[in-house]
Every structure is written in C-alpha cells, then in structure tokens.
Specification:
The protein has 193 residues and is α+β, with helices and mostly antiparallel strands. It has one domain: tt1808, chain A, CATH 3.90.1570. The chain has four helices and 13 strands. The strands form four sheets. The protein has a six-stranded mixed β-sheet, sandwiched between helices. Strands 1-3-2 form a three-stranded antiparallel β-sheet. The chain has a two-stranded parallel sheet with strand order 5-7. A hairpin with a 2-residue loop joins strand 2 and strand 3. It is globular, with a radius of gyration of 16 Å.
Amino acid sequence: MSAALETPSKPTYADIEALPEHLVGEILGGELFVSPRPAPRHANACGVVGAIIGGAFQLGFGGPGGWWILPEPELSLGVDPRFDPVVPDLAGWRRETLPSLPLTPQFEAVPDWICEVSSPSTQRRDRVLKLPFYARAGVGHVWVIDPHAQTLEVFRLVDGLWQVAQAHGGDEVVRAEPFEAIELPLARLWDCG
C-alpha cells in the first residue's frame, strides 16, 4: 500500500532522504509517494525478471550482454521537475547509452527499458503517472507485469506515444522486446509455491 504524503511545500529530494530505510519514495506529478518494500509476489517477479534479463543482457550468460540492468534506480532525468526522482522496479541501459554507472544514486541518462511490477495499490500510479512520464523522457520500451493477473504487457515508444507491442500471460514462454534474443518463461514470474 502506498499513499501520497502530505508535505507543507513542494517535495524535494531531501524529503526522500529523510524517509526511514524500509520505505521507498518518489516524486510523481509534484507529490511525494511513499511505499513500503514490495510484497513477496511483487519481489519474486522483479527478482526473476532481473535474474533472467540481467544474466543474459548484463552478464552475457546465454545472451548478448551489452546492458546495465538495475533494480530500483532513482531516475532524475531533467524532463519534468514534478517527477524527480522516479523509481521504477527495474531499468536497463544499453552500454552505448550509459557507458559506466554513476557515482551518485541518481541516474540522469534515460533508460532504454523500464519494468514496472504492478500491484493493486500501484496500478494507477504505474499507468496514469509513470507511463506518460516515461514517454516524455523518451524511454524506448516499458514492461508492465501484473503478478496477480499473471500478465506481461510490452509497450514500445513510437512518435512519443505508447504502442502495445506484445501482451502475454499465464505459462507462455515469450521473446519480449527489446530482449528478443532470449526466452522468458512467464510461469517463473508467478511461481510462489
């Protein structure tokens, strides 16, 4: 469960730094949103996607390498001060886009790919606030994973608008943009038993 936190003035990065370690904060549309750490199904889906995609595309195990794949990076993209920072569940940069990792927690380079794992409490935020922001920033692909509905939606940015490139669910084994070089067994994302 997450909520917009009331602050007397515009939220700043100092408000995020002041949060207890067990909370995650991001500024969306000029509001500070604070969430607890993810629930087990959410964390499992993130971990599995990160392991499969990261193994193949960051480390080159069974895939081409050439990417950085990171959990919960703080994005300070300079696109809209009302959205700074934004924290996706996972983000990826081609090494040409981001040759080396920054020394600070903030990433200023626009990711080539973002993955949001939605829960009932984050659906609106992920779709209504974050997706339009990611389009304005120029992110090439966004995945929205719903572990409760067991779905993966793949969005591709075309002329500044999101196009649904693929939609999958259940126990399908898929090749999803921009990581078509490997297969992703979706059943692994929902396996919590």
